[in-house]
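Re: beginner question about structure tokens

> Can someone show what the tokenized structure looks like for a real chain? I only ever see the sequence side.

Sure, here's an example I had lying around. Input first:
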Amino acid sequence: MQENLSELARKYREEMLRLYGMRSQGIEDTPPPGEPAAPDEANEAERPAPPPEAVLPLPPVNVPVTEPGDEEIVEGEPDLPEDEDGDPVLPSYIRPTAPVFPEEWEAQKAYEERNTSEGKLRVVASTADSAYPVPGARVAVFTRIGNKRHLNYLLTTDESGETPVVTLPAPSVDLSQEAENVAPYALCDIEIFAYGFFRSEAEDVHIFPGITTRQVFQLVPLPLQSEADDGITQSSAGRSGRS
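And the corresponding structure tokens:
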């Protein structure tokens, strides 16, 4: 076994010395049988060239390249041309328009501008030609702004059939001095509900500035054989104007 290893080592050294001598003299080594020959230059020329790699264009010369975040920050407002009054003149592409508000907002604004003062209101509920008061009646007071009614108060009559005095908007007293002002008062609507009586209401009740308006309702009792739901029916006899 040891002799075989020594023999193989000797043959390996001789083969390496032979190859080294051939390389130093410029003699190409022929591959042993069964191994493919090394590709020569002619075969390399016949192979198709690989596709060129994508090359990104370089930036122009003398043009600074800005990185994100390196932009110059200009403090203050931009300089705009001014007119004769010293007001800035906006560019032509900027055309400011006035905001458009809903009709309810415009009606509310007009109502507040007109009714800068206050008036007072008390509601009285009675029956049998004011012979008996109607306690516990529910009273709803509405203010009309534009084409809509807005609930202002929900009141209840006391033992004497009267509600507490409440405050409502009213126009200023100065408006009554103007010749063209034909309505120096505000308007409200009132509805009243009482158990055992027809429902009643009063529209366009006048509220004057600095004056307490006393609105009296003459409630009509329901027939004895009618049901409670009949109270939804309105009675023209239960309506009354401002007193």
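Each token stands for a local structural state, so reading them left to right follows the chain. The chain is about 15% helix and 25% strand.
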